[in-house]
Amino acid sequence: MQGQKDELEKVKRELRFAKEKAEDLERTKASEMSAMLAKYNREMADLEEALHVSVPACMLVDEIGKDQGFR
Q1: 71 pLDDT exceeds 60?
Q2: Which of 29, 32, 36, 65 fits 70 for a cystine, CB–CB 3.0-4.6 Å?
Q3: Which residues contact 71 (CB under 8 A, 6 or more apart)?
């Protein structure tokens, strides 16, 4: 009987350890995903800003070219 009780306690400890490890991995992955999403959002904002800056410049170059007879 004592052997079964010891085995049960061992299995319970292993289960707790596995659960803690899974929770740690979950937190780590959630943190990684959050960092990746933040990086993606920063890059998108930078690209959108670059697009807004470059489009008017391109339009200005087109207008100058038309004025000089290039188009």
Answers
A1: no
A2: 65
A3: 62, 65
Residue found by looking up tokens 């070219």 in the block: 65
* Angle, alpha carbons 6-8-14 (nearest 5°): 105
Apex 38 CA angle, 51 and 21, nearest 5: 155
Measured distance CA(5)–CA(59) in Å, rounded: 80
> Do the beta carbons of residue 35 and residue 41 sit within 8 Å?
no
- Using the structure block, give the residue that is written with the tokens 């998108």: 44
DSSP 15-39: HHHHHHHHHHHHHHHHHHHHHHHHH
- What pTM value is reported for the model? 0.58
Residues 6+ apart with CB under 8 A from 62: 71
Contact in structure between 71 and 62 (CB atoms under 8 Å):
yes
